[in-house]
Amino acid sequence: MNRPYIVCHMVMTPDGKVTGEFLSTPECEAAAELYYDINRADPATAFACGRVTMEGSFTHGWQPDLAPFEGAEVEPGDFVAQAAARRYAVAFDRMGRLGWQAAEIEDADPGYGGSHIVEVLSSAAPLAYRAYLRSIGVSYIVADDIPTALCKLSELFGIERMLLEGGADINGAFLRAGAVDELSLVLAPVIGAAGDKSLFSGAVLTSFVSMGVGHPEGPYPVLRLKRRGE
To answer: In the chain, what are the domains?
Structure first.
């Protein structure tokens, strides 16, 4: 089964946290900018996040009115609006809750802005939401597990390399599915709070080997590790 090569790319504290108030501290600014520099330079043609991360970064809680789409006839299966986009934003949004207003990410950062949106929905996602996505030109695939989703992303959109950019729940789901091939971790010079989330939620034992430490353009260490056996 063909699937993209997955690089989990995150800012991480020395105690293994990836989400929390530490991300907004002045001490984390340079590490965060290095993270974005690496994101822009990576040859991946897609980045992937879970629903919570996509909502916090891009849709900001906006919700469409689905009433006009209730009862709409929707063809079964997947919907490919763009099969050859420059870059894809892949949103793992099982029940279809993200409020997209356009088919592309609107962001000043060229690593994100202009990326065509692909929603990964479960088979239980509402038909009205699927009809809404079709109306604004957002692609979607229907997959109830990560291996199926990755196979479809490869076959339908030609994605060969994808950055997995959290949060902890979707990172953990990928790890449990054996679908994290490489780690790219920018170490921030702060320690996370007790309630901050770790790199992988529900992690399973997985072995990696070092690809080196450092980044010639950044002030903080970047840990690069490859899954053993890759």
So the answer is: 1-45+160-230 (3.40.430.10), 48-159 (no CATH)
